[in-house]
């Protein structure tokens, strides 16, 4: 069971992002674009993990950009709104591109941010 951590704890929020990227990697392992598009369970799970990533980015606030200014935090925060409110018009090709192109650098940036925080960096 997960311990109760304040919402604004940047270590927990960066960890949430990394963990959910890991979930997405597992959900999509071995699926090409066609098999992903045919797998409702994987699509649903990926969308939910992306909502959590977006929410964690929102909770990070300015800390995210202070530690990792090259990441498009505004777009990440906005992704959750699009998934929640425009769920019926989400393009799976764009989701797949996001998984392949955007999540690896986000994961690396969050890992680096955790390293910086563990070394007494900005909070």
Uncertain runs are none
User: Could you give the distance between the termini?
Assistant: 26 Å
**Mean pLDDT metric:** 93
Helix content: over 70%
Judged by helices, strands and strand pairing, the structural class is mainly alpha
Give me the number of helical elements: 6
Beta-strand residue fraction: under 5%
| Main sheet specs | none
Query: How many whole angstroms does the radius of gyration measure?
Result: 15 Å
Instruction: Indicate how many domains the architecture comprises.
Output: 1
Number of strands: 0
How would you describe the shape?
globular
The H/E string reads HHHHHH
Describe it.
The structure is a single chain. Helix content is 74%, strand content 0%. It has 123 residues and is mainly α. It has 6 helices and no strands. The protein has one domain. Helix 1 packs antiparallel against helix 3 and helix 1 packs antiparallel against helix 6.
Structure in a nutshell:
The protein is 74% helix and 0% strand. The protein is mostly helical. Helix 1 packs antiparallel against helix 3, helix 1 (10-28) runs antiparallel to helix 6 (92-118) and helix 3 (40-60) packs across helix 5.
């Amino acid at each position: 069971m997960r311990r109760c951590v304040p919402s604004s704890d940047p270590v927990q929020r960066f960890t949430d992002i990394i963990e959910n990227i890991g979930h997405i990697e597992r959900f999509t392992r071995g699926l090409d674009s066609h098999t992903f598009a045919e797998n409702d369970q994987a699509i649903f799970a990926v969308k939910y993990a992306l909502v959590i990533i977006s929410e964690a980015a929102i909770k990070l606030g300015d800390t995210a950009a202070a530690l990792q200014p090259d990441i498009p935090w505004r777009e990440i925060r906005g992704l959750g709104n699009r998934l929640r409110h425009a769920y019926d018009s989400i393009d799976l090709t764009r989701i797949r591109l996001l998984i392949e192109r955007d999540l690896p650098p986000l994961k690396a940036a969050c890992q680096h941010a955790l390293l910086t925080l563990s070394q007494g960096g900005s909070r």
